[in-house]
Amino acid sequence: MVKVGTWNLENLFRPGPSGPSTDAAYTAKLEALAQAIGQLSPDVLAVQEVGDPDALKDLAALLDGYEHTATAAPDGRGIRVGFLPGRRSTRGGHAHIFGPPSGSGTGTRACARRARSPSSRLRRGPRTGRLNHVTSRPA
């Protein structure tokens, strides 16, 4: 069985105009996220509201067993979705991150980009991971 988790990172940016005002606040946010996610210990973690892909890499570095990250292209605000495939559930492959179908009339923002990751194959053979970001905010 593969354990899949999801977490809203609430505008995860490195310190600066869009992120925390200090390095200490950024470190505290990363540590709190790492502790909560570490307790869940999912095999694959889908994340929302990634502002800076490098900030997601910083978070992954604090998590045991999450060496790779993948993110979609940003929406108009610079926010992405992404995922972290855990080491114990992966062995190479690829993943697709995509938005809703065009013309869906749902008022969603499409976060679309094919993301290649060396780590999205599940234990029992190759799998394709897919993540769709749908938000209630108007497009």
Please give a quick description of this structure.
This protein is α/β, with parallel strands linked by helices and 139 residues long. It has helices at residues 23-40, 53-62; strands at residues 4-12, 44-50, 70-71, 80-85, 95-98, 113-115, 129-132.
Q: Could you describe the largest sheet, including whether it forms a barrel?
A: 4 strands, mixed
Which value, in Å, is the CA radius of gyration?
Answer: 15 Å
Order of helices and strands: EHEHEEEEE
Oligomer: single chain
- The figure for the number of domains is 1
The mean pLDDT is 74
Structural class: alpha/beta
Helix content: 10-25%
Shape assignment:
globular
Treating each run of at least 4 consecutive H or I residues as one helix, how many helices? Answer: 2
Taking pLDDT < 50 over at least 5 consecutive residues as the criterion, the unreliable ranges are 92-127, 131-139
Kindly, what is the distance between the CA atoms of the first and last residues, rounded to a whole number of angstroms?
Answer: 36 Å
Quote the beta fraction: 25-35%
Task: Give the strand tally.
Answer: 7
Strand order of the largest sheet: 1-2-4-3
